[in-house]
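Good morning C.,

I know you're traveling, so I'll keep this short. The sequence:
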Amino acid sequence: QEHRNVTILVETPRGRTAATSVSPSLPYESFVEHVWEAAMKRDSPLDTRKRSRIDEDYKRRNVRRNAFAVCDGKVVSRDNFHRLFSRNSQMQTVSLRLRLRGGIDRQNRVGSKFGGGGVSSTQNAERERKERLKQLALESIELSKDPYLMKNHLGTYECKLCLTLHTNEANYLAHTQGKKHQAGLAKRAHMEKLREKELGQALIGQVVTQIKPAAVVRKVRIGRPAYQVYKSRDPETNQRCLSFELNYPEIDSDVQPRHRFMSAYEQRVDTPPDRRFQYLLFAADPYETVAFKIPNEPIDKGEGRFVTHWDSEDKKFILTLYFMDPEDEKAEPEPK
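The tokens, ready to paste straight into the viewer:
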């Protein structure tokens, strides 16, 4: 009985059943290889192309390390595989299985088919999809040339297109393969196309000429002008009056002095700014701009109350202004 062959029924990884005759004198490695070859022949289709593909798939697997047989729910090991030949029955049923080399064991899940890898959950499938996209993006995308990637002062990454935050580069690469980023890229490309189309239509029939920018000529300042300030009061209304006289003997022939009022918060000379005062500025080339610090009170802009005069012969500029009295300020109607 020990020398006669025993027929082994093998359940293949594709769910089929193969029959083979095995000699009891075979060692354990040869027994496993013999059973594996029988399963491979049973799973191989008649089509030559499909058969060669399955043969290559079988050859890629390390049979001696990963394959093992199971009989009656027990693993057939090197020590007890001879018990298959010592039984009275001439036919034994053996299932051929493979060991997983790390990772999640999906072989024995509920609803899984033998050799099919088991039923993967939605979370695992999504995790594997993101990992594949990340590896693909790492191979095809150069982050140094990405115009939408920005690293902030906290060390995290920002997408300027979608306004999202990412902890590392891999997380940003996974984001670039998502629907939101892809939709933003498509929208940006569509807007650029419309903008180019509108620009092209606007340029039809027009001659575009290149105009060189005029060179900025820096004029040399010759100093501050001579000035005099007079304080007085109107004898009739008792309003305070200020009169400024500035002499510009070296002023250019085609230039007339200009003036403007500046608040305390516009200037950067007197710090901190004092809201009780304002500044009256006079400017004329090639002289430096001078400013006078006056009270920040309403100025009477009535007829004859705010007068400027430029004497082109004597090169003298005169400005006279009157401050409004508090009583006149209260009597003015409120603006509508």
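Safe travels,
E.
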